[in-house]
Design a protein that fits this description.
The protein is mainly alpha-helical. It folds into two domains: 46 residues, no CATH class; 35 residues. Strands 1-2 form a two-stranded antiparallel ribbon. The longest helix has 36 residues. It is rod-shaped and about 80 Å long.
Length: 85
């Protein structure tokens, strides 16, 4: 009961140790460490390898979109210049 009154995150391993869950089911082919499934521990964010990969893919996509937008702006500027010629 004292644990439930605290505002904390616990790992799947800790939950099993406390008897709150019966077993830990992992994702096949993913992280092996059960504690890695916990996103936040002690107020700090803990990233799994999958979360890092998703973020990196997002950043790559954002950069590609910025490059595409710059190309679109350049093309439109050239078209306006040709139209005024």
């Amino acid at each position: 009961m004292a644990l439930m009154d605290q505002n904390i995150w616990i790992s799947p391993t800790q939950a099993k140790d406390y008897g709150l869950i019966d077993e830990i089911v992992g994702l096949s082919g993913k992280e092996e460490d059960p504690a890695a499934f916990v996103a936040a521990v002690g107020g700090r964010i803990r990233l799994t390898a999958s979360m890092r990969e998703q973020y990196q893919a997002y950043i790559v996509g954002q950069r590609a979109e910025e490059v595409r937008q710059k190309q679109v702006r350049r093309t439109l500027a050239r078209l306006r210049a040709l139209a005024e010629f």
